[in-house]
Amino acid sequence: MGLLFTGGLYAVATTVNQAKADTQSFSASDVKEGEKLFLANCATCHGMGGSGTNSGPSLVGVGAAAVDFQVGTGRMPMQMQGPQAQVKPKQFTDDQTHQLAGYVASLGAGPSIPAAEYLDEKGDAAKGGELFRVNCAMCHNAAAAGGALTRGKFAPALAGVSGQHIYEAMVTGPQNMPVFNDANITPQNKRDIITFLKTIEANGSPGGADLGSLGPVSEGLFLWIAGLGVIIAFTIWLTSRTS
Amino acid sequence: MSASTASTNYTPKTKVGRITNFVDERVGGSGILREFGRKVFPDHWSFMFGEVALYSFVILLLSGTFLTFFFDPSMTETVYKGSFVPLKGVEMSAAYNSSLNISFDIRGGLFMRQVHHWAALLFVASIAVHMLRVFFTGAFRKPREMNWVVGGFLLILAMAEGFTGYSLPDDLLSGNGLRIIDGVIKSIPIVGTYISFFLFGGEFPGTHIISRLYTLHILLIPAIILLMIAVHLFMVVVHKHTQYPGPGRNDHNVVGYPLGPVYAAKAGGFFFIVFGVVALMAAAFTINPIWNYGPYDPSPVSAGTQPDWYIGFVDGALRLMPGWLFGIPMEWHVPLPWGTNTLTLNVLLPALVPAGIIFAVLFTYPWIERWITKDNREHHVLDRPRNAPTRTAIGVAGFILYCVMWAAASSDLIATHFHVSLNDVTYWLRALFFIGPIIGFIVSKRISLALQRKDREIALHGRETGRIVRLPHGEFIEVHAPVDEYKRYKLVGFESPLPLPATPNAQGVVDRREKRRAKLSRWFFEDRVAPVTPRELEAAHGHGHHEEIAAEEDKKAVIR
User: Fold this and answer.
1) Closest CA of chain B from A126, distance in Å
2) Block mean pLDDT (10 aa), chain B, length 560
3) DSSP labels for A143-209?
């Protein structure tokens, strides 16, 4: 009975999610230009028509949000194969990224680029903080300073990442990140999380230099090297007369 | 006593003098001052870490008192209404709420919190460095073995004090730390669960742990620390301070400055230097930003959750331990008459065994060495670490073992910051856990012996000047400048015991224990570079062609 119930809920949730897919419109020329760019830059790995090859996954149904995130942050085209695509300077202009997104969105329904109303950073920071600690902090660190995953993979630090990219990452689950769809975290709650991240970023560190927000390790390292170093220098100075 | 009889004949002329004399006649202050003011302390920078620890403790008492005025050690749920926006309206415990208020709404509160925390890190760090100094210079030898043990207790107490303090703010980070402690306690066979329930007053986290830790943190542990410090310092006064070897220094004297007035002034000034350094760090560098972590809730765990540095080695050991070993699970289900109990060796072993070994060796080492060397004399002159190669090597091996576990506590940060795989970091550290101490032992022992050889060389032939001279018959030689007597004393004036062979006991029997001791003694002392004897020195300096003769003497003296 309980299984049926949760299963039913899940079915409802997924249809809710699909129903929301791709409301953004791309012009026909966007799609056409996007296809050209795709063939020239992406098809080697992702295959003709984005159907995937051994070196790259299928892009049918990943949606415009995935393209905007991966290409917009410079992760794609990938610099090299590795545990994880690394951030690097963007390879395409915003227009080209838009065209590519249009083309990939045309391949199959997927998450679209978020609406501006969710990116205004005027949500509830406290609520966002709670959601962040429960859903994100185990990989990204409570202060969003990033963290390690297995086998060379990692969760990046989130300072300096645009709200749009944060939102897109949540709905598309890039690299090793799980997907937080709209049934899991509502768009309103995603807005709260983005607000929280932007608030703590703007807040800075009230207690002085944050030492990378890495917690007790950087504090301990600082104490042993800088703190004790200065004190040793003083002890040598204080006892220098006699020897 | 003599001071009070003497002062009866003395009539002070000024008002201040009269008051002082009044007090002195009743308290005998001048006698105490005379005794202490004339106590001689040798001067060396490495002797000052104990002082740093003491001063950090004073800073901790001062800043901690401030914090108790505003901290509320209660786990009652409240809603945050303070001025830190990202937490406004969040439900949290009164303890976390008051910690946030100390940080944001009480004038100077954040500064005092940071002073307290930085001083705590410095307190334990200076104790650790002080103990390393004592160990490597052999200052723990008779008559100071008991004081070494007191120092060891102080280290454990400092760690306990630090950990209870770390847990008080009831933020996510400290809650995660307590959760690990809870897990470790529960891994103790059979009684673990009961101890955990007793400690937390029910299932973790319960509603009592903060107030209990608070009592320990501000009352019980500081009181014991204070008592131990008193015992420690009293023994320092009784034993007098050790000194480094040098001309005129022996086991029956202390060469240095009297406490008063210069030394006292220096020490007093040094307190303010330490305070200044801590205050500077607290003012400019944030420590434990509890507002980042949020209130404790057993469900979330943050990436990069670490304890403060002194608990790091236990956390690291837990991270290094595999859950399965050669296909055998480390978690066993043991059927017992009253039901099945779980034995989680993957938690129990790493949490208790390495720390247990390190502290057991630390506490017993003075007796182990005394047993091996049969050395029952009093030592007030320190060993230079190179002149006790095996002890130095043992210390380095232990130090490396500690450091590997310590590094393992930050394995995730090593992985992200050096762009390597977390798994590889763990594998390497696991290997180093076993190999590192052995390599460290061999390398440091060889370095010690090499440094002794260098000392020997310098004592016999002087320092290389870098001046090359061509002799009339065409030979080139480098001119060696002889070292002066003061320097030479340091190079030659040390003991280098030979291995002590097994000797029969009163019954005329060489028992097994004695044989074991002899074996250890050989292991301890067989590799040695003999100190230069006066005869060798004479020979080396008396001849024109002293190089060859000395080389031959070298061969004889250096026993491998």
Assistant:
1) 5
2) 53 88 85 82 90 96 96 94 90 94 94 96 96 95 93 96 94 92 92 93 91 95 96 92 86 84 87 96 94 90 89 94 89 88 91 92 94 90 92 95 94 92 94 96 95 90 88 90 84 84 85 89 88 82 53 49
3) TS--EE-GGG-EEPP-TT--HHHHHHHHHH--TTPPP--TTTS-HHHHHHHHHHHHHHHHH--TTSB
- Selection from B150, B171, B172, B153 nearest residue B161 by Cα: B153
Q: How far apart are CA B433 and CA B429, in angstroms?
A: 6
Helix (H) or strand (E) holding B529: strand B528-529
Contact between residue A76 and residue A41 where contact means Cβ atoms under 8 Å apart? no
Residue A36 to residue A27: CA distance in whole angstroms: 15
Helices B389-408 and B312-320 cross at an angle (nearest 10°) of 70
**CA distance linking residue A236 with residue A109, whole number of Å:** 70
The half-sphere exposure of A107 on its side-chain side, counting CA atoms within 13 A, is 25
Q: What is the pTM of this model?
A: 0.89
Burial of A237 from C-beta contacts in 10 A (0-12 / 13-18 / 19+): exposed
User: How many C-beta atoms lie closer than 10 Å to residue B514's C-beta?
Assistant: 15
Q: What is the pLDDT of residues B315-354, one digit of tens each?
A: 999 999 998 888 898 888 889 888 888 899 999 999 999 9
ipTM of the complex: 0.87
**B277: contact with A, CB 8 A cutoff:** yes
- The CATH class for the domain spanning B49-299 reads mainly alpha
With vertex at residue B46, the alpha carbon angle to CA B42 and CA B47, rounded to the nearest 5 degrees, is 45
In DSSP terms, which residues pair with B79 in a beta bridge? Answer: B91
Query: In angstroms, rounded to a whole number, what is the distance separating the alpha carbons of residues B493 and B496?
Result: 10
Q: Which helix (H) or strand (E) holds B274?
A: helix B264-284
Provide the residue type at B18 as one letter: R
Question: CA–CA separation, B287 vs B63, rounded Å?
Answer: 15
Chain A interface, best mutation among B179, B241, B287, B405, by max A CB count within 10 A: B287
Q: How far apart are CA B258 and CA B34, in angstroms?
A: 11
The DSSP code for B503 is -
Mutate to test the interface with B, among A132, A158, A236, A238 (most CBs of B within 10 A): A238
Binary contact (B285, A151; C-beta < 8 A): no
Contact with chain A for residue B297, Cβ under 8 A: yes
| Exposure letters B477-512 (e unless 16+ CB within 10 A, then b) | eeebeebeeeebbbbbbbeeeebbebeeeeeeeeee
Q: Is B108 on the interface with A (CB under 8 A)?
A: no
From-to residues of CATH 1.20.810.10 in chain B: 49-299
Question: What pLDDT, in 10s, does the model give residues B7-28?
Answer: 467 788 899 999 988 888 888 8
Main-chain dihedrals φ then ψ at residue B295, nearest 5 degrees: -70, 155
Q: In one letter, which amino acid is B45? A: W
Q: Which residues of B158-174 are buried (b: 16+ CB within 10 A; e: fewer)?
A: bbbbbbbbbbbbbbbbb
